[in-house]
Amino acid sequence: MNRRTFWTTASLKALVFLILISSRTAQGAPRVVHVFVALADNQNQGIVPVPVALGNGNDPARNLYWGAAFGLKSFFKASRDWELVEGGRGGSTAVLERCVFRHRTEDVFLVADAYQGSRIRDAVIDFLSAAAGLGAESIKVREPSEALSVSAGGASDLIVYIGHDAFMDFQLSAIHGEKGTKERQVIVLACASKAFFGPYLRGSGSTPLLWTTGLMAPEAYTLKAALDGWISHEDHEAIRQSAARAYDKYQKCGDRAALRLFASGW
Questions:
Q1: Is 105 exposed, middle or buried, given 0-12, 13-18 or 19+ CB atoms closer than 10 A?
Q2: Which pLDDT tens digit goes with each residue over 104-114?
Q3: What is the DSSP letter of 65?
Q4: Spans of all domains in the chain
Q5: Dihedrals phi, psi of 24, to nearest 5 degrees
Q6: Chain mean pLDDT for the chain
């Protein structure tokens, strides 16, 4: 890389950062997506067994839903649209790893927590609590010329669950919330999540953006496609169609079957 190319690249990065800062000043706080990932676990979840490395709920680095090729961390880290800006342990003993991504061109942050597979109950409770507007969390993020706080948990704009549909294995007490002044939207990427999660989300005050009607593989390409539309302020149906196209691309299930798999709203 020659000196001219170096300074051109550096200048472009600085320009993008200044645009983001200007946008943040004009529009307020960045939008935040908080993703609760229950690591796949052959021993502690009622899933169809996957290869041992992929189904070890204590090993996020190789887990099907986190460190594998289509796991959340690996997939978003490889994306040209997102940059990993923070990483480490989460705020709970159930969280084995937390990643914070920043969108490269829009003022959006993604906070992702990898829950130990045996602690799937905690992952679901924390997701439902956030959907109800509870458990707001302020996360410090270092940026090139400043440190800022990202409002996650119940203060997030979009709250996501990825993993096994735990309600096929156990039940929980309902967690209630209110709509409040800011809309909270939810995505649930788990098997038949509309039927199983619906009763729990009814009283949360949140709005279902995307969930499923049948068996599915909750890998990160579906979330990435949905987020692309959400960031661009597309309507629910457009986001549903984008998610279905991405799912068909990787699963080869047919476009009609993929579209039937996803639903939006109540």
A1: exposed
A2: 999 999 999 99
A3: T
A4: 30-263
A5: -65, -40
A6: 91
